[in-house]
Amino acid sequence: MAVVVRTEDGCRLWADQAGAGPPLVLCHGGPGMWDYLGPVARLLDDRVRVIRWDQRGCGRSERRGPYTVDRFVADLDAVREQLGGPRVAVLGHSWGAHLALRYALDHPERVSHLVYVSGTGIDPERGWHPHYERNLRRRLEPHRDRWEALEAGPHTPAVEREQAVLQWSADFADPDTALRHAEDMATPWLGLNRDCNRAVNAEVKRELREADLAARCRALDLPVLIIDGPEDIRPRSGVDSLHQALSNCERVSLPGSGHLPWVESPYDFRLAVTTFIDATA
């Protein structure tokens, strides 16, 4: 059921909730994208009440800033307060994994469980990024000329969508189904907010360099599950520093899956999440 969450500064956020049980709030990646985690909700909504939302300026939410990490943490808190209740589990994917982690660090008393899916860790040197660039180009090889031509041309909505589909196809392990999965992510096409992407990514880089997130993670006293796909083009070693800093953390790698492990390993993804929440309830 779609609803509107209004933040304290008056921004209207699209949200959706389904299922019954303890609340689980999902945080999509990007930044600058919309919620694409409907398949995750459908995997879990017989066990938990799943709450999804489009982040500020993205998808069906109001297109307005400011685009800062603290502002997104506050928006997530508004979603939690208005739809989830006093304490929720939070699952974040990619950039959304960092957002979920920051929320748990800022408001640990409001989080029962943290599920960190395909994030990129807290290494201030971002040592994973050069490997990601090489892996992206390698996996895009069959479509690389077209992808580069689209990047160099005018960015109309149709061009932006085609380029995104090609790039997102690299996030899947199986080349035979990668384009189809990427098309599913891009349907419906709600447009990318590049201003949001640039601003938040730049701030995250600064935060990793200047804030001692490892020390804050060592003090975090709540259960954390890290889920990885070993075929992710972002090397999973980037998450090692986060895993080592957390005192109450499990880590699961789902064979045969890339950056979106629930797509390519749905049964194992569901089992990992539900077992974790049930065991630490």
Q: Could you describe the 3D structure shown?
A:
GO terms for molecular function: aminopeptidase activity. This protein has one domain (2-128, 191-279): Rossmann fold (3-Layer(aba) Sandwich), CATH 3.40.50. The model has no long low-confidence stretch (mean pLDDT 96). The protein has helices at residues 38-44, 69-84, 95-106, 129-139, 144-152, 157-169, 178-185, 194-210, 213-218, 240-245, 261-264, 266-279, and strands spanning 2-6, 12-18, 23-27, 49-53, 88-93, 111-117, 224-228, 249-253. The protein is an alpha/beta fold and 281 residues long. Strands 1-2-4-3-5-6-7-8 form an eight-stranded mixed beta sheet, sandwiched between helices. Helix content is 44%, strand content 16%. The protein is built from twelve helices and eight strands. α1 (38-44) links the parallel β3 and β4.
